[in-house]
């Protein structure tokens, strides 16, 4: 075998020990929250049949699916004429599986295939990588984790409440304090297009006002104009765009503004009820920001929509979700509605790094390294190692007889906070020298004292 | 879009909530043990360049790699003549990436690419799915998790000791009590082939005696005979095959038997030292079984080899590993030796199921369901939900006003052990009725009492 200089496929990443410890810190916080709220984890295979995936993400999405070459003789169904016809004739003959593109379509497939065994309302969460053949760029990868929670099989607004509560809990646990959970309702956007005299054009309206943050109201007006929205419509929309008030005042204002739209009022009522539930539950409205111009593209949302923005960081939008009517219709099961939410783990990672919020020490890190000078120190160290681990303290014995400096370097590089030094005196007196590498302090202790010190 | 009846690709599985809870129970036990021993987690991408994967698993392995079709115009480099030449000419033109086949090759690639940042000795663990285009059959899947721990960059036998300790800890935590950790040393097998007069044929010897468990000594003799091992060699081997004694007696016997083989004696000394380390550490030899005929195929092992067998179950072999000399040579980095071990998570799952060892309740399961009759019960329930979650108790409020029977069915199906019933009396008296669904017991309690009861 010839020697190769190995490399990674474009747009993919390794996660080393430090990154993994930090990712686990985020993911464990999220998982613990999901469990506390009664969500159950599922996993689906990386590969799905192309018939399951194709046509669910638009033409662009179909292009971005990673397809898997049939195993064995993948050319067995291929005719020379297929080659001339190009990739679209060739593809179905050489590939029948693809890598999952998101967690929603596999979840819909799962619900349909297991509908008789599932306990509805079904609260599920799923944390797995997805793959997209996107052009790689800063912050965009071809493999990345999604982290989704959905409740299907109920229209109860308690689900919307719980999404707000879960976000608040996760962010509070992670130490992220300066953020907003923007909430709106798709029906309000429908109502808006009705009352400005552009009924049925909420799709275009959403696409345009979705850009408000990026390009400003002036440019959005131009775009609406180009899309054929009338001067009068745009003028009517104006007070909504510039609306600044607390949630209750916004609700009051919109009750008047949307009074002629039944759908709009329904959306408003839903928002109001969610805010009311928050109060009944005993939680403040801190961070919860009713935002009439939050549009979140359009896609399949039919009720509440959510987006979380962290303030004063370079990439603020870290999570989003909403309520949908028909998750599983495409697989032949009608009437499964629900509401879902996705934590953007990579984004949250970046935010935490930018804000310096990761703890110095992680729970799953080694706490004590045992160092020694010779075979008798090694033997003594083995027995102490046993004691430490029995006390549940993550600990290591340096595996080789090596210069003490080398052993300390190991502790240092691995960010191990405590080092035990076992010399002749310690062995004779049956105690240990404990050095705290953070404070630099060193003291001689009995084994019991040392264990309670580092616990 | 037409309606489709969805299905899963052959050889792949969904994991539903119950399976996930059980898998997490196993994996968390393993992870916690790895951390306690100072192993650090890494993750590598699902996709690797085919140049990284190909040629590492033999011809059969290359066939079983899942290859990914190049994205975009995958035919752009294909000539009509390639089609005639068949799959081997076509493959490099339409695919440059594949799905990882195991965790060892990606780990070797990782070590080479990050050799300047890694702290050696490097104790890493990795738990990720791998993919193989094997013919699916009972217990064999095309996607399955591997769970590997390796230490590279040291020859210290402390690593072998720690593998034994980790296995013992994991199995003890999981409640598996009737099992053996078979340990042998590749050098002993080399020694055996030397002393029976078949020097250099330890490969064939291993392949044959590896089948001892399955086909018995008689058939193994036939195979050795067919392979051209002499009568006298087979006769000399005989006492080794039938050797039954405790570890120390086996060691004593082999010291004589292998006295003419330097390599054999070296292997013996290593085994002896590992057993000695176990004693120094203060751990018994229970479950540790020096097995001279353990061969574990051959592949790249050069020192200790391990295999764990659970007794009295249908598929007993659940884990294995060993020491190797040259992990990264194929990627141009020589001299990285180490020792590794892999827990067979699917197998351990099956064993635990067969032995009924999974706990009834899992830590991440909902503990309390709040049920109610009307809006005032719902509102009261929301406030109690807040209290429960603040106490860290995984709990849910049934999301819809529904018949109490339906709410209980939900608790039952989700195996929620406690149900709160909030009727008019409870609301008035500011207490709760708590029903234990396992014992059937029901009592009226204050909210504080209830919380301490279910904690």
UniProtKB/TrEMBL annotation, chains A, B:
Keyword Chloroplast set for record: no
GO molecular function, one term: histidine-tRNA ligase activity
Record SUPFAM superfamilies: Class II aaRS ABD-related (SSF52954), Class II aaRS and biotin synthetases (SSF55681)
Domain of life: Bacteria
Locations listed in the record: Cytoplasm
Its EC number(s): 6.1.1.21
Quaternary structure annotation from Swiss-Prot or TrEMBL: Homodimer.
Family: Belongs to the class-II aminoacyl-tRNA synthetase family.
Name under which the protein is recorded: Histidine--tRNA ligase
Organism: Cecembia rubra
Lineage of origin: Bacteria, Pseudomonadati, Bacteroidota, Cytophagia, Cytophagales
Gene (UniProt): hisS
């Amino acid at each position: 075998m010839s020697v190769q200089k190995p490399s990674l496929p474009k747009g993919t990443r390794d996660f080393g020990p430090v990154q993994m410890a930090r990712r686990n810190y985020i993911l464990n916080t999220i998982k613990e929250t999901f469990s506390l709220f009664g969500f159950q984890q599922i996993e689906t295979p990386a590969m799905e049949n192309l018939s399951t995936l194709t046509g669910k993400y638009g033409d662009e999405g179909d292009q971005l699916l990673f397809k898997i070459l049939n195993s064995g003789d993948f050319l067995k169904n291929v005719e020379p004429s297929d080659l001339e016809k190009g990739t679209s004739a060739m593809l179905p003959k050489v590939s029948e599986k693809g890598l999952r593109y998101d967690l929603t379509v596999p979840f819909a497939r799962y619900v349909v295939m297991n509908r008789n065994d599932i306990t509805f309302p079904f609260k599920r969460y799923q944390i797995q990588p997805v793959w997209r053949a996107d052009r790689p760029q800063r912050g965009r990868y071809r493999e990345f984790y999604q982290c989704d929670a959905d409740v299907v099989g109920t229209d109860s607004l308690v689900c919307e409440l719980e999404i707000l509560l879960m976000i608040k809990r996760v962010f509070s646990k992670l130490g992220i304090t300066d953020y907003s959970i923007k909430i709106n309702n798709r029906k309000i956007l429908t109502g808006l297009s009705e009352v400005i005299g552009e009924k049925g054009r909420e799709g275009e309206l959403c696409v345009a006002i979705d850009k408000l943050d990026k390009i400003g109201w002036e440019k959005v007006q131009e775009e609406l104009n180009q899309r054929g929205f009338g001067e009068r419509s745009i003028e009517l929309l104006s007070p909504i765009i510039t609306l600044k008030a607390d949630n209750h005042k916004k609700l009051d204002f919109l009750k008047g503004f949307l009074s002629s739209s039944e759908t709009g009022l329904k959306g408003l009522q839903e928002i109001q009820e969610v805010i009311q539930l928050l109060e009944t539950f005993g939680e403040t409205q801190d961070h919860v920001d009713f935002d009439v111009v939050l549009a979140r593209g359009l896609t399949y949302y039919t009720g509440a929509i959510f987006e979380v923005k962290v303030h004063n960081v370079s990439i603020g939008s870290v999570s989003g979700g909403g309520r949908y009517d028909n998750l599983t219709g495409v697989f032949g099961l009608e009437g499964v509605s629900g509401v879902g939410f996705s934590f953007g783990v990579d984004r949250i990672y970046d935010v935490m790094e930018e804000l310096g919020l990761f703890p110095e020490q992680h729970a799953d890190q080694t706490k004590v390294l045992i160092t020694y000078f010779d075979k008798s120190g090694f033997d003594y160290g083995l027995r102490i190692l046993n004691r430490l681990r029995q006390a549940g303290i993550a600990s290591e014995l340096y595996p080789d007889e090596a210069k003490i400096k080398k052993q300390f370097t190991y502790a240092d590089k691995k960010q191990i906070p405590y080092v035990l030094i076992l010399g002749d005196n310690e062995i004779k007196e049956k105690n240990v020298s404990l050095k705290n590498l953070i404070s630099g302090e060193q003291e001689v202790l009995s084994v019991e004292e040392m264990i309670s010190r580092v616990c």
